[in-house]
Amino acid sequence: CKDCPENKVRTGSVVPGDEDKDDVCLASCTAGSQYVSNNECVDCPSGSTSSGTDATFCTCSVNHYAKKQGNTWTCEPCKTGQTKAATQIPSTDGVGEAASACTAATSCNANHYLTKDGKSDPDYCEACPEGSTSSDGSSRTCTCEANKYAKNNECKDCPENKVRTGSVVPG
Q1: How far apart are CA 3 and CA 80, in angstroms?
Q2: Per residue in 122-166, pLDDT tens?
Q3: What distance in Å separates the CA atoms of residue 90 and residue 66, rounded to the nearest whole number?
Q4: b/e map of 139-161 (b: 16 or more CB within 10 Å)?
Q5: Where are the alpha helices (DSSP H) in the chain?
């Protein structure tokens, strides 16, 4: 009987057997932070975990999507208010997900508003700029305080001796 290489295990070998074959030893990875690929231990991407010493994948946590760039996998967070179930890395099809895999936000916390980056992108929550508030969780705008006006998605002070009410951001 021969010892398996580091991070490899084997049980149930019989003598006589495959004396010179190292591939009879199986990878034994660190539970929670590595998975087995091609009988080697691979580190899980940041924000993901594996289920055990013989896990064949890692799992991105809830509200994260699995992104693949080249041969590198990452767990990217969904935008504020968006949701997503946990995701397996590497995916069974070997292809990553887009940010659009996150489910659109339908309601936001106080002083946030619903917005999106493009026509087909899912809604997410954005904080109201300083000096403004939203009316409720489904607002698509924030209203600047009295004597402030909206410019470049910010609330600016009105010039001296000028007043304004009801200016909205974004606008």
Answers
A1: 51
A2: 999 999 999 999 999 999 999 999 999 999 989 999 998 888 888
A3: 8
A4: bebbbbeeebbbeeeebeeeeee
A5: none
- pTM for the model: 0.73
**Which H/E stretch holds residue 75?**
strand 72-77
List CB contacts of 70: < 8 A, sequence separation 6 or more: none
Strands (E), 10-52: 26-27, 34-37, 40-43, 48-50
Q: Are 86 and 60 in contact (CB under 8 A)?
A: yes
- In tens, the pLDDT along 85-130 reads 998 988 777 788 888 899 999 999 999 999 988 777 899 999 999 9
H/E segment holding residue 115: strand 112-115
**Burial class of residue 62 (count of CB atoms within 10 Å of its CB; 0-12, 13-18, 19+):** exposed
- Selection from 149, 141, 148 nearest residue 125 by Cα: 141
Tokens, residue 95:
């292809």
